[in-house]
Write a structure and sequence with these properties.
Layout: H1 3-29, E1 40-43, E2 47-50, E3 73-77, H2 79-82, H3 92-100, E4 104-108, H4 114-123, E5 132-138, H5 142-150, H6 183-190, H7 192-198, H8 201-213, E6 219-223, E7 228-232, H9 234-241, H10 246-268, E8 272-278, H11 281-284, H12 286-289, H13 298-321, E9 325-328, H14 330-337, H15 353-368
Parallel strand pairs: 3-4, 3-5, 5-8, 8-9
Antiparallel strand pairs: 1-2, 6-7
């Protein structure tokens, strides 16, 4: 055996031994639920869900350590309730648990919308006998998600209008956790070490590059005076918030109907129901980017913020008229944006742990007033 071959074998043995050791250490230092990618499986009504016990999720497929017999509070939502860009212990449901001392169970997944919230409330959430159910209503894509669900899933066909086509194209989920499963997906679902690299700034740069290659414009704001360095995706947000589009306007109508049904279901079961309205990142930073002609796509940003302002106004008016309790997180998040970093320093539209904490504090303040 020549010297080069011996060296190669020695290196190979070292890698084979060291990688499992590094993986074991990673799992001791980092919580697997914060890194492992859960596997998605198809569902006839929800369209997809997480396969139970994958990605260190619980036996029902949600981002919790375990499934309680009962829960005082159940949170339902999409990726902004799931807690993308933060650890599971830093999502707003987890922060609310610490703030209130109540048992809070998180039932959420990126890409879900009001149709899925109602279905989960009926089929799963009521079984926990909660005192209160809190639904996260993300303005960035929940309107489009409602439209997509109603016109692609026959469970909701009674809510359709004949002028709209069925099987619409869905808005891409912000968490970018697709349903394909290649070697990279296997590693993402089984190796914390792999996810430490892929979910770091290296992964962020790769995801940002993919968006740019698809032709999406990412607008960066560098404001040294106020300590702000972050990015925005107005193209993506307008896909779900352009009220001039008939499908988005229809999605708004459907979303309000779903929340009305949720509220009535909660009343029927003597459960408090609360909606937390979660704004887009663009609206949170409106004081810095609205009317800012120095930014690329300034007109597009202004149009987006104007649409969201209109949608938020119509939603709050409907909730007031129909007795649906709500917390609008826009004001608290805007104040937070001027005091601390509440979003990652990248194009991501999800808050970091500070932003989720602010949402939880807003909810607690409302609950304390009941």
């Amino acid at each position: 055996m020549n010297r080069n071959l011996k060296t190669f074998i020695l290196i190979l043995i070292s890698v084979v031994v060291s990688l499992p050791a590094a993986e074991g250490i990673s799992r001791l230092v980092f919580d697997p639920i914060d890194f492992l990618k859960p596997k998605r499986v198809s569902d006839e009504i929800l369209r997809y869900r997480i396969e139970p016990a994958t990605g260190a999720h619980d036996r029902l497929g949600y981002r919790n350590k375990s499934v309680p017999d009962t829960a005082e509070v159940v949170a339902i939502g999409d990726s902004h309730t799931y807690g993308i860009s933060a650890r599971a212990s830093e999502s707003w449901p987890s922060a609310l648990r610490r703030l209130t001392g109540k048992t809070v169970y998180n039932v959420s997944l990126g890409g879900y919308g009001p149709a899925e919230y109602l279905y989960l409330m009926e089929k799963e959430v009521l079984a926990f006998h909660p005192e209160i159910i809190i639904a996260g209503f993300y303005l960035g894509n929940d309107l489009k998600d409602s439209f997509t669900a109603v016109y692609s899933v026959d469970t909701w066909k009674d809510m359709r209008k004949p002028e709209f086509e069925s099987s619409p194209e869905a808005v891409e989920s912000d968490d970018e956790e697709g349903a394909s499963y290649g070697i990279g997906d296997w590693l993402a679902g089984n190796s914390v070490l792999y996810r430490l690299v892929s979910s770091s700034f290296i992964g962020d740069n790769l995801r940002q590059s993919r968006r740019i290659k698809r032709g999406e414009q990412i607008v960066m704001l560098e404001d040294e005076k106020n300590g702000i360095s972050t990015g925005f995706t107005p193209d993506q947000r307008l896909k779900g918030l352009d009220l001039a589009r008939p499908d988005i306007r229809e999605g708004l109508r459907l979303s309000l109907e779903f929340f009305y049904r949720m509220n009535e279901l909660a009343k029927k079961n003597n459960i408090e129901f609360l909606v937390v309205i979660i704004p887009t990142k663009e609206s949170v930073f409106a004081q810095y980017i609205e009317g800012n002609k120095a930014l690329p796509a300034s007109g597009k940003i202004d149009y987006l913020i104007g649409n969201e302002r209109q949608a938020d106004s119509e939603i709050r008016k409907y909730f007031d008229e129909h007795g649906i309790r709500y917390v609008d997180a826009l004001g608290p998040l805007r104040r937070g944006a001027g005091a601390e970093r509440i979003y990652p320093d990248n194009f991501g539209g999800h808050t970091n742990r500070n932003g989720y904490r602010i949402i939880a504090e807003s909810i607690k303040e409302h609950l304390d007033g009941l």
